[in-house]
Design brief:
Strand content: under 5%
CATH topology of one domain: Na+/H+ antiporter like fold
Order of helices and strands: HHHEEHHHHHHHHHHHHHHH
Number of helices: 18
Strand order of the largest sheet: 1-2
Oligomer: single chain
Shape: globular
Helix content: over 70%
Structural class: mainly alpha
CATH superfamily of one domain: Na+/H+ antiporter like domain
Number of strands: 2
Length: 453
């Protein structure tokens, strides 16, 4: 039963396939790569929307889709499917990241988390104030939250491009700040960008949440059975008038951070199931092997807590599928269709870009400096003020969440296009400034290290 095929005896096509899949798996877990893919998708959308084929771009995303079950029919556009349905999975991963960080990460210790929390709040307040100062008109002021968000994938991806010369605590600080930023963005969406709420929808969403809790209580460990109650929560929030993607955050925050209680340790279960399989000879009835195989799959599943297991499984699909598709669907701003000579679009675009590039770093660094100066917090080990400035600059990369909020904030196509253009411009400038400052910071640290050595 323990016969092994020597590697050299395997077919060449299989060896090449194994090597290709191993390379692909490594690529999918490189943070900088997901940021590059996101950037490419945004560039393709922008070029396509301003090319002779622009009509095809807009027609694609307005393509009607319908789902019917019996007498019930639901209709929406492809754009709705991406922004309101698929982005729920993005928010599910965000919710899981928040849950993990609160349980065992940078947000688990209040003393450790206090500086990123205050810095994130400063990074939300300063851009909002800059935007409102430049757009007091009631038709434009509703976009105050557009430049307040930080894109985790882009910001951390740009930081990864700088290499290992950047202290690990800078990355941890930036990640914690971006996650807190996401929490604030979710609260802003829920409180300020949801219409008149229909309380009947909350009853439906509550039934879905109760079903999730019931499944967890009776020990359902597989993710698949949770799809139906998750869909009920989504439908309920859609009925309320709140944005249905918030269902992802709710479900992500409910995902258990510890493995399902079992009668034995998962590793012991794996060992016992494997031993049972070893005891069978090759001629054993497949039916006899079904039970130990089922036990093996269950024990393997419970080696990792659900919040880690599900997030790991969804990450490649979100980073390389859903987020690029969202960028492709929403970054296609027809520049020729935006009249920047008009006061409204010009001020919206300029304020969003300025708030991201200037407001974010000023808010992050200013509040951090004040908190440290007053003795409320301390800088993380190995992180200087130059590192805090790098974090502040990269926090200005708003992209995904900023585009999402822009679509909730503006009904006027001219103002929405201007806001999107401001997000794209501001995020690109912030990323380039972050790369430039990060390069100087890394070289200064290397020179300092050489001088000490």
């Amino acid at each position: 039963m323990d016969r092994l095929t020597p590697r050299q005896d395997l077919p060449r096509t299989r060896l090449l396939a194994e090597r290709a899949f191993a390379t692909l798996e490594r690529f999918l877990h490189i943070e900088a790569a997901s940021g590059v893919v996101l950037l490419i998708a945004a560039a393709v959308a922008l070029i396509w929307a301003n090319s002779p084929f622009a009509h095809g771009y807009h027609a694609l995303w307005h393509l009607p889709l319908s789902i019917g079950i019996g007498g019930f029919t639901f209709s929406g556009s492809l754009h709705f499917l991406v922004n309101d349905a698929l982005m729920t999975i993005f928010f599910l991963v965000v919710g899981m990241e928040i849950r993990r960080e609160i349980h065992e990460g940078a947000l688990s210790d209040l003393r450790q988390a206090s500086l990123p929390i205050l810095a994130a709040l400063g990074g939300v307040a300063a851009p909002a104030l800059i935007y409102v100062a430049l757009n007091g008109d009631p038709s434009r002021v509703h976009g105050w939250a557009v430049p307040t968000a930080t894109d985790i994938a882009f910001a951390v991806g740009v930081l990864a491009l700088l290499g290992r010369g950047i202290p690990a605590h800078v990355r941890i600080f930036l990640l914690a700040l971006a996650i807190i930023d996401d929490i604030v963005a979710v609260l802003i969406i829920a409180l300020f960008y949801s219409g008149g709420l229909d309380w009947h929808g909350f009853i439906v969403a509550g039934l879905g949440i109760l079903a999730v809790l019931g499944f967890q209580r009776i020990g359902v460990g597989s993710a698949l059975p949770y799809v139906l109650p998750g869909a009920i929560v989504w439908i309920g929030l859609l009925m309320t008038g709140a944005h249905p993607t918030l269902a992802g955050v709710v479900l992500g925050m409910m995902t258990p951070v510890v493995s399902l209680p079992m009668r034995e340790r998962p590793l012991d279960g794996v060992a016992r199931a494997v031993q049972k399989l070893r005891d069978h000879d090759e001629a054993a009835d497949a039916q006899d092997m079904a039970a130990p195989l089922r036990q093996l799959r269950r024990a393997q599943r419970e080696l990792l807590p659900p919040v880690v297991r599900v997030q790991t499984a969804l990450h490649p699909w979100v980073a390389y599928g859903i987020m690029p598709m969202f960028a492709l669907a929403n970054a296609g701003v027809s520049i020729g269709g935006i009249d920047l000579s008009a006061a409204g679009p010009r001020w919206v675009m300029g304020a969003v870009a300025l708030a991201l590039v200037v407001g974010k770093p000023l808010g992050v660094v200013g509040v951090s400096w004040g908190a440290v100066r007053l003795g409320w917090c301390r800088l993380p080990p190995g992180v200087s003020w130059a590192g805090i400035w790098l974090i502040g600059l990269l926090a200005g990369v708003g992209f995904t969440m900023s585009l999402f909020i822009a679509m909730l904030a503006f009904d006027d196509e001219a103002l929405l296009g201007a806001a999107k253009l401001g997000v794209l411009t501001g995020s690109l400038v912030a990323a380039l400034l972050g790369l430039a400052w990060g390069t100087v910071y890394r070289r200064a640290r290397a020179a300092e290290s050489d001088a000490r050595g």
